[in-house]
Specification:
The chain is α+β, with helices and mostly antiparallel strands. It is built from eleven helices and twelve strands. The protein folds into three domains: 112 residues, no CATH class; 88 residues; 104 residues, Double Stranded RNA Binding Domain (2-Layer Sandwich). It has a five-stranded mixed sheet. Strands 1, 2, 3 and 4 form a four-stranded antiparallel sheet that branches. A three-stranded antiparallel sheet has the order 8-9-12, covered by helices on one side.
Length: 338
C-alpha cells in the first residue's frame, strides 16, 4: 500500500472513530443519580418533571411526556373526587370519571409546551432514560387566561343570583351557578390550575374561591326561602302531587298549601290521552308543569309515559298516573328559562 492509500485509510478510520464518539450516548447526568438529585435539578416549585424510559431516545422522551400526563390526570381526578364526596354528603353528586380527567389533561398539555432535558442518557440496564418537564410559570401564562374566562363566567352567575330580588328566581340562579361549578370542564380546569401554579391560583382567584365555598349554603338558603304551591287540578290518588313534592324537597324547596304565601306556583296540566277499545281502556298520558313567580314563567317541564292499559278503567287510569309520577321522580329538575 502506497503512502497516499495509507493516509486515506487512516483518515477514514479517524472519521469513523469521531462519528462513533459523536453518536454514542453520554454518561449519566446529575439528575439520574437519585430521586433527591432529580428534585434538585427540577425543583417542584418551578417544574413538573417526570422520567421516562425506552429503547430509543425518542421513545424515552415520549414515555416521560406520558408520565406527566398520567401524573396530572391522577392528581386532577383525586382533587375532583374530594369535591364530589363533599357534595354527596350534602345530597348532591355528579361523578366525573378518571378517564374524563385524563382526556382533559392530555388536551391541555398540547398548550403547555412540554420540554425534554437535553442530557438524556443510555443505561445498559434500563435503556434510554429521559426527562420531560413543564415550566410552571410558562404554563401559567398559557393556562391562566383560559381558566380566567371560566372563573369570570361563574362569577357572573353568582353575582346575578346575589342581586336577584325574586326569591324563586334567586334560587334558580344559584342552582345555575352551582351546576356550572360542578361541570366537568370547570372542575377539571380549576383542579389542573391548582396543580400547575397554586400560588397564582390563590392570588388571582381568591374571590372566586370564596364564592365557591359559600355556594352550598347560598343554594340551601335561597331554596329554603322559596316555598312552592302545587296547582294540580287533575290527579289520581295524589300521585302527581306526591311525586312533585318529593322532587322539590330533594332540591331543597318546600311545598306550601297557602298559595298567597308561596314564592312560586307550579301549575300542572295533564292530558290523559284516554282511548276505549274492544280490548280495554288505553291511556297515552303526558303532562306539562310550568313554574311561575311574580318575575314570570321560570321553568317548564314536560313528560310522557307511553301506553298504559287495563281491562277496567280505574286500573288503567291508576297505571297512567303512576307512570307519569315515575317520570317526574326520575326526570324532574330545575333549570332557569332565562
Amino acid at each position: 500500500m502506497n503512502a497516499f492509500l495509507k493516509l486515506c485509510a487512516l483518515a477514514f478510520a479517524a472519521a469513523l472513530t469521531l462519528a462513533s464518539c459523536a453518536s454514542a450516548p453520554s454518561g449519566p447526568p446529575p439528575w439520574a443519580a437519585s430521586p433527591a438529585a432529580m428534585r434538585e435539578a427540577f425543583p417542584g416549585g418551578e417544574f413538573i418533571a417526570q422520567q421516562g424510559r425506552g429503547a430509543t431516545r425518542a421513545a424515552a422522551e415520549a414515555d416521560a411526556t406520558a408520565a406527566i400526563a398520567r401524573f396530572l390526570g391522577s392528581e386532577v381526578f383525586s382533587r375532583v373526587a374530594v369535591l364530589e364526596q363533599y357534595w354527596a354528603e350534602n345530597g348532591e353528586s355528579r361523578a366525573i370519571t378518571e378517564i374524563e380527567s385524563e382526556i382533559f389533561v392530555q388536551a391541555q398539555m398540547q398548550l403547555f409546551g412540554v420540554r425534554h432535558a437535553q442530557d438524556a442518557h443510555f443505561d445498559r440496564g434500563q435503556g434510554w432514560v429521559a426527562v420531560a418537564y413543564i415550566n410552571r410559570a410558562e404554563a401559567w401564562q398559557v393556562y391562566g387566561p383560559g381558566f380566567r374566562l371560566q372563573a369570570e363566567a361563574f362569577a357572573r352567575l353568582f353575582d346575578a343570583a346575589e342581586n336577584e330580588s325574586d326569591p324563586f328566581r334567586r334560587a334558580l340562579r344559584f342552582i345555575a351557578a352551582q351546576d356550572y361549578a360542578r361541570s366537568p370542564d370547570f372542575q377539571n380546569a380549576e383542579s389542573l390550575g391548582q396543580l400547575i401554579h397554586p400560588a397564582r391560583m390563590d392570588a388571582e382567584f381568591a374571590g372566586v374561591r370564596s364564592m365557591l365555598a359559600s355556594l352550598p349554603q347560598r343554594v340551601g338558603d335561597s331554596a329554603g326561602s322559596a316555598a312552592v304551591f302545587l296547582d294540580i287540578p287533575e290527579d289520581f290518588e295524589s300521585r302527581l302531587r306526591g311525586a312533585f313534592s318529593q322532587r322539590l324537597a330533594a332540591l331543597g324547596f318546600s311545598v306550601t298549601d297557602d298559595r298567597a304565601a308561596a314564592a312560586a306556583v307550579c301549575s300542572v296540566t295533564v292530558d290523559e290521552g284516554r282511548q276505549v277499545r274492544d280490548l280495554g281502556v288505553f291511556y297515552f298520558p303526558r303532562l306539562q308543569a310550568v313554574i311561575t313567580s311574580p318575575a314570570g314563567a321560570l321553568h317548564t317541564f314536560t313528560a310522557e309515559a307511553g301506553q298504559q292499559a287495563a281491562v277496567t278503567p280505574d286500573v288503567a287510569r291508576r297505571r297512567a298516573y303512576q307512570a307519569l309520577a315515575d317520570r317526574v321522580l326520575s326526570d324532574f329538575s330545575l333549570e332557569a328559562n332565562f
